Amino acid sequence: MLEARLQQADVMKKVVDAIKDLVQDCNFDCNDSGIALQAMDNSHVALVSMMLRSESFSPFRCDRNIALGINLGSLTKVLRAAAKDDQLTIKAEDVPDVVNLVFESGEQDRISEYDIKLMDIDQEHLGIPETEYAATIQMPVAEFQRICRDLSALSESVTIECTKEGVKFSSQGDIGSGSVQLRATSNIEKAENSVEIDLTEPVALTFSLKYLVNFCKASGLSDRVSLHLSSEVPLLVEYPMQNNSYLRFYLAPKIGDEE
Amino acid sequence: MARTRSKPAPAAATAEELESTTEVPTATAKSVPPPDKNRPKLFLLPKDTSEDSRIVTLDNPATGAPSRYYFCPEKGFYEFTRIAAPKKDCRSWLITSEESLASKESGNGLTTDSENVELGTGYVVQAANLFIATPIDLLFLILPVLAPKNMKETEQHFLELFDHLEALSTASRQWKALFTQYPSLKAMIEKKMVAICDTVSVGDDTMYRISQEKLLALLLKKAERVCKNGLPPSLENKFIKTALEVPIMNIKREESSLTVVSENPDSQLSTTATAIDSQSSTETVSTAATSVIHEEVIKEEFISTPSLVTPPEIPRLLRLRTALRYLASSYLPSTLRTSIQTLLQSSNLIDFTPLDTHLAAVAKLRSEAAALRSISDNISRKRGLEEDDEKIAEREEKKRKKEEEEKKKKTESRGIKQLKKADTSGMKKMSSFFTKLPKKT
C-alpha cells in the first residue's frame, strides 16, 4: 500500500495546477523512491516530468509499485478543498480502485477526506537520458514568465539565442518585432534575482510561445527556473523543488519551418 | 433449315448424314480406338453443291477472327452455326455408315455379319455438336476490306476492282488461293460491289468506293426480309414482347413478379442459336406465368386496360430494328457499325421516332412501377428486419464512445484548449528525441 504525507498540500496543488493545462489524464507512478509523473500533451511535442522524492514526504511508505491513473481535472477539484497549510496524506491500496486524499489542518483538528476514482491510462513511457546541454540559463521565474508573456503578444514563437554576451529572446510577428536581452548578472545581495548563464557553445533555437507560457504556470513552485538548451534537442525548463524534487518540461524546437 | 439438308432424312435412327472433312479418318478397328485429335464433326451441308466445294478459313467480318466458311463456286459462301447440347447434358453422336444400315435392312447377310459391320463402321462422336451451313452473303465477307480502317478516316479513295481484290488477297492467303482457283469469284464480288459502292468510270475501268447509304439501304432490305415471315420465336420473345410489355400500374404486388427486361445490348444477340433457344424456353415459361397473373389481376380488380396502348405500327418497327441490329452486330465490321447506326438515325429511309418515344414511355412506366415496388419493399423490410443483438451492441458501443469523447472535451481545461490552437508546425514529436521505454508492469 501507499501512504505519503506532504507537510504542505500547497505543493501538490501547485504541481497539479501547472500540469493540468498540458495534460488531461496521467499516471502517478509511485515507488519507494517517491511519486513520479511523466506525460505528454495532446500533440506530443511537449513532455512534463515530475518527481516528488520520498524525502519530500514524511512519512513515506510504498510497498509496491503503483500507478495511479488520475484525471487531473478531478484532482484539481478535490485539491481545491484543501487549505494552503493543510497536511496532505495520499493513500492507496496495492491494487487500488480509488486514491484517498486526507487534508488535516493542524490548528482546528479538521480532517477532510476524499476518494478519487482511478482510471486505466495507457501511456507510453519515454526514457530521457541525462544530457550535457550547450547552454544553461538560470533566472528568476518572474523574469521568464514576463518575457514569455510579453513576447507572446507579438508572435507565436520565440527564438532563444545564447551567446557570450548573454541570452536574447526575440520574436517577430505581424505587428512588429521585439526582443529581450538578459546579461549574466550576479546579484550578491539578492541571489534569487541573478541571471546565471553557463555556456559551452553558442546556441539559437526557436520555440512555441504558447507552450512556454503554459509552462510558466509552474512559476509558483519555486523562485528560480533553469532553461537548458542544445541545438536539435528539446528545451528543458526545470522548476526545482525541495529535496531534489523537480518539475520539468521538455519542448521540441521548431526546425526548418521558418515563418 | 430443311433446305440445307443434303438428303432427305432416312427413317432410321441416324437421321443426319455424315460429311466428314477430308482429313478425318474413319475408324474401322473393333477395339476401342485411341482418342483421335481430329475427331469427326457432324455437318449439315447444302445439297447439289459443286464438286469443287470446300471449307475455307476467312476472317469473320464482325470480329476479324479467322472462321470457317463453306464455299461453293456456284452457289457462294455458307457460314457454320454450331448447335450444341447444353454442357451438363452428356450427349454424343453415334454415327454409322449407310452401307451397314442398308445391309441390315435388306437382311440378305447373316445377322452376326451385319452386326459386325455395324459395330465396325460405327463411330461415336463424344461432343454432340452439329454444324449447320447456312448461306451468307458474299457482301459481308468483303466488307472489312471496303470499310474504312478506322473511324477517323472519312475520305476514301475510289479504287479499281483489282485493287480491292488485291487488298483481300493481302488480308488472307485463302482469298488469294480462291481467286486463282475460281475466276468466277471475281465476277460474283463485282456484282456485290456494284450494289453497295459508288462507281466512277475512268476510261474502260470502273472505280469503286463504298457508299454507306447504299449499304444501309441494302441492310434495310435484308432486315425487312427477315421480318416478313416474322422473327424466330426466341428473338420475338426476348426483344419484342418483353420490350413492349406495359406494366400495370395499379397493382404493386403482382408487379414484382414481372420480369423487367430492358433493351438488351446487341452483343447478346451473337450468342449461339442454342443459347437463345434455351433462354427462350425459360422466357416463355416466365411470360406465361406473368400472363396468368395478369388474368387473375384482371378478374380481381376489373382492370381491363393497361395505362399505355401499344400502337399497331410499333411491333413492326421494333422487329425491323432488332433485325437490323442483329445484322449489324454479327456481320458488320466494328468500324462500320457505329457509322451505320448514326446514319440510320438521320436517314429518311425509315423513321424510328415513334418507336423511340413509345419505348421511352414504357421505360418511364416501368421505372415508376419499380419505384413503387421499392417503396413497398422498404416498408416490409423495416417491419421484417429484427435488429440483431450484435448490431445493437455495436451501436451502443459507438454511442458510449462518442459520449465519452464529448465528456472528455467538456472536462478539458482551458489551458489544454488553448494549446490545441498552438502552431506545432516544424516541431517533432517527443518520441523522436527520446526512446520509448518498455512498459512497466
From TrEMBL, chain A:
<dbReference type="GO" id="GO:0070987">
    <property type="term" value="P:error-free translesion synthesis"/>
</dbReference>
<keyword id="KW-0235">DNA replication</keyword>
<dbReference type="Pfam" id="PF00705">
    <property type="entry name" value="PCNA_N"/>
</dbReference>
<dbReference type="GO" id="GO:0030337">
    <property type="term" value="F:DNA polymerase processivity factor activity"/>
</dbReference>
<dbReference type="InterPro" id="IPR022649">
    <property type="entry name" value="Pr_cel_nuc_antig_C"/>
</dbReference>
<dbReference type="InterPro" id="IPR046938">
    <property type="entry name" value="DNA_clamp_sf"/>
</dbReference>
<dbReference type="InterPro" id="IPR000730">
    <property type="entry name" value="Pr_cel_nuc_antig"/>
</dbReference>
<protein>
    <recommendedName>
        <fullName>DNA sliding clamp PCNA</fullName>
    </recommendedName>
</protein>
<dbReference type="InterPro" id="IPR022659">
    <property type="entry name" value="Pr_cel_nuc_antig_CS"/>
</dbReference>
<dbReference type="Pfam" id="PF02747">
    <property type="entry name" value="PCNA_C"/>
</dbReference>
<dbReference type="GO" id="GO:0006273">
    <property type="term" value="P:lagging strand elongation"/>
</dbReference>
<comment type="similarity">
    <text>Belongs to the PCNA family.</text>
</comment>
<dbReference type="GO" id="GO:0043626">
    <property type="term" value="C:PCNA complex"/>
</dbReference>
<keyword id="KW-0238">DNA-binding</keyword>
<feature type="domain" description="Proliferating cell nuclear antigen PCNA C-terminal">
    <location>
        <begin position="127"/>
        <end position="254"/>
    </location>
</feature>
<keyword id="KW-0539">Nucleus</keyword>
<dbReference type="GO" id="GO:0006298">
    <property type="term" value="P:mismatch repair"/>
</dbReference>
<dbReference type="InterPro" id="IPR022648">
    <property type="entry name" value="Pr_cel_nuc_antig_N"/>
</dbReference>
<dbReference type="GO" id="GO:0006272">
    <property type="term" value="P:leading strand elongation"/>
</dbReference>
<comment type="function">
    <text>This protein is an auxiliary protein of DNA polymerase delta and is involved in the control of eukaryotic DNA replication by increasing the polymerase's processibility during elongation of the leading strand. Involved in DNA repair.</text>
</comment>
<dbReference type="GO" id="GO:0003677">
    <property type="term" value="F:DNA binding"/>
</dbReference>
<feature type="domain" description="Proliferating cell nuclear antigen PCNA N-terminal">
    <location>
        <begin position="1"/>
        <end position="124"/>
    </location>
</feature>
UniProtKB/TrEMBL annotation, chain B:
<dbReference type="InterPro" id="IPR040456">
    <property type="entry name" value="RNase_H2_suB"/>
</dbReference>
<dbReference type="GO" id="GO:0006401">
    <property type="term" value="P:RNA catabolic process"/>
</dbReference>
<dbReference type="InterPro" id="IPR019024">
    <property type="entry name" value="RNase_H2_suB_wHTH"/>
</dbReference>
<feature type="region of interest" description="Disordered">
    <location>
        <begin position="383"/>
        <end position="441"/>
    </location>
</feature>
<keyword id="KW-0539">Nucleus</keyword>
<feature type="region of interest" description="Disordered">
    <location>
        <begin position="1"/>
        <end position="41"/>
    </location>
</feature>
<feature type="compositionally biased region" description="Basic and acidic residues">
    <location>
        <begin position="392"/>
        <end position="423"/>
    </location>
</feature>
<protein>
    <recommendedName>
        <fullName>Ribonuclease H2 subunit B</fullName>
    </recommendedName>
</protein>
<dbReference type="GO" id="GO:0032299">
    <property type="term" value="C:ribonuclease H2 complex"/>
</dbReference>
<dbReference type="InterPro" id="IPR041195">
    <property type="entry name" value="Rnh202_N"/>
</dbReference>
<feature type="domain" description="Rnh202 triple barrel">
    <location>
        <begin position="44"/>
        <end position="137"/>
    </location>
</feature>
<dbReference type="GO" id="GO:0005654">
    <property type="term" value="C:nucleoplasm"/>
</dbReference>
<dbReference type="Pfam" id="PF17745">
    <property type="entry name" value="Ydr279_N"/>
</dbReference>
<dbReference type="Pfam" id="PF09468">
    <property type="entry name" value="RNase_H2-Ydr279"/>
</dbReference>
<feature type="domain" description="Ribonuclease H2 subunit B wHTH">
    <location>
        <begin position="140"/>
        <end position="340"/>
    </location>
</feature>
<comment type="function">
    <text>Non catalytic subunit of RNase H2, an endonuclease that specifically degrades the RNA of RNA:DNA hybrids. Participates in DNA replication, possibly by mediating the removal of lagging-strand Okazaki fragment RNA primers during DNA replication. Mediates the excision of single ribonucleotides from DNA:RNA duplexes.</text>
</comment>
